[in-house]
UniProtKB/TrEMBL annotation:
This is Enoyl-CoA delta isomerase 2. Transmembrane segments: none annotated. Residues 116-135 are annotated as: Disordered. It is found in: Mitochondrion; Peroxisome matrix. Residues 38-122 form the ACB domain. GO terms for molecular function: delta(3)-delta(2)-enoyl-CoA isomerase activity; fatty-acyl-CoA binding. Keywords: Acetylation, Isomerase, Mitochondrion, Peroxisome, Phosphoprotein, Transit peptide. It is an enzyme of class 5 (isomerase). The keyword Lyase does not apply. It holds the Pfam family ECH_1. Its EC number is 5.3.3.8. It comes from Puma concolor (Mountain lion). The gene is ECI2.
Length: 392
């Protein structure tokens, strides 16, 4: 069941598979504080090693020897026979560590893996992102590698506010990602914000047919946009790198996993803007966090911290801002190696029975908003922002 990736890992790093069995023995031999600090690093190195490209036999022997020394202490098993070449090489490497203390071996293991990770990171980043990005997008940077399609909103100077063009490009990128050979798809933002939501200047571009026509075409765009998230067939992950506002928050209920930086906030100030909830949040939020918490966000515009959003189930996990990118992408690279068909099918099993309902909710929310956009409350709020009289 582990698939080809699992088989390769077992062949290269057989020691890693036994790590969980070794931990308690290791813990017995250390002071409590030192144990807690370095045990975590060691465990994370054991996970990281599975993601490395083949570092060559010499390094693999070093890793093996350090692992054995760190978990079992000095080599005291009988030396394999001369014809048992592989086991003899492993025994020699372990035995060469003599009486190196377990703690030092563990530290050396962590340092070695960390060195290997940074050199493999830099070799996999030979091409800068600008060279790898898919053509045809002006408001996004879309890249596909390591079985991950990453869609990055790219208007950092405008806090990644979503223009009509960006809505259309995100839909295009999602449709392409649903058919490409990536296993998972990630939406994230460039700069200090994840997204400040709908670009309020979208409302200033009134066609000759008048404001009703604008409200109608905006409702169609909104409905099509949210439909793409409802129908997206592969695991969809949000990497919320900073504050998120409005529609960038509401659609999170349609993602499969949401990772947030500790700097992220989640804000849906619809009443302040004379508007009403969209992105199926009128259904998904009460379901995720309960009606009382959902009402505080969707009716009263209560802004949540990342920790609060996680406690309420909107966010899967929060990472410290300083290590957010590293930790999230390490995690996602590991997930992207899981069998893609199994992941798609699991998503279908989890989500499909809700799809029809979600489409109906999306249609209804879009219809209500079409009316809201024509109200004085909404017009005044948008004008106040655009004339710099109000900010959130
Ligand atoms: C087809 C239609 C579908 C509609 C779907 C319904 C969607 C609903 C929503 O998403 S509601 C939420 C709408 N968003 C907002 O109301 C946020 C408005 N922005 C702000 O309040 C602030 O900009 C801020 C709190 C996000 C950030 O404040 P600050 O850190 O002080 O930065 P600036 O305000 O100086 O922003 C820098 C620059 O970006 C412009 N900008 C930011 N957000 C938006 C936005 N949502 N719309 C338009 N422009 C935005 C801001 O004006 C600045 O531009 P400037 O440098 O002055 O040219």
């Amino acid at each position: 069941m582990a698939g080809a990736a699992g088989r390769v890992v077992r062949r290269w790093y057989p020691h890693v598979l036994r790590s969980s069995l070794q931990v308690p023995a290791l813990q017995l031999h250390m002071s409590k504080t030192a144990m807690r600090a370095s045990q975590k690093d060691f465990e994370s190195a054991l996970s990281q090693v599975k993601l490395l490209k083949d570092p060559g036999n010499e390094v693999k022997l070093k890793l093996y020897a350090l692992y054995k020394q760190a978990t079992e202490g000095p080599c005291n098993t009988p030396k394999p026979g001369v014809f048992d070449l592989i086991n003899k090489a492993k025994w020699d490497a372990w035995n060469a560590l003599g009486s190196l203390p377990k703690e030092t071996a563990r530290q050396n293991y962590v340092d070695l893996v960390s060195g290997l990770s940074s050199s493999s990171d830099s070799s996999s980043q030979v091409k800068p992102e600008a060279d790898r990005k898919q053509p045809g997008y002006e408001t996004l940077v879309v890249t596909s590698e390591d079985s991950i399609t990453k869609i990055m909103m790219n208007r950092p100077a405008k806090k990644n506010a979503i223009t009509t063009q960006m809505y259309n490009e995100i839909m295009l990128a999602l449709k392409a990602a649903s058919k490409d050979d990536s296993a998972i798809t990630v939406l994230t933002g460039n700069g200090d914000y994840y997204s400040s939501g709908n670009d309020l200047s979208n409302f200033t571009d009134i066609p000759p047919e008048g404001i009703e026509e604008k409200a109608k075409s905006s409702a169609i765009l909104l409905r099509d946009f949210v439909d793409c998230f409802i129908d997206f067939p592969k695991p969809l992950i949000a990497a919320v790198n900073g504050p998120a506002v409005g529609i960038s928050v509401t659609i999170l209920g349609l993602f499969d996993t949401v990772y947030a930086s500790s700097r992220a906030t989640f804000h849906t100030p619809f009443s302040h803007l004379g508007q009403s909830p969209e992105g199926c949040s009128s259904y998904t939020f009460p379901k995720i966090m309960g009606p009382a918490k959902a009402a505080e966000m969707l009716i009263f515009g209560k802004k949540l911290t990342a920790a609060e959003a996680c406690a309420q189930g909107l966010v899967s996990e929060v990472f410290p801002d300083s290590t957010f990118q590293k930790e999230v992408w390490t995690r996602l690279k590991a997930y992207s190696k899981l069998p893609p068909n199994a992941m798609r099918i699991s998503k279908q099993v989890i989500r499909n029975r809700e799809k029809e309902k979600l489409h109906a909710i999306n249609a209804e929310e879009s219809r209500v908003l079409q009316e809201r956009w024509l109200s004085d409350e909404c017009t005044n709020a948008v004008m106040n922002f655009l004339t710099r009289k109000a900010k959130l």
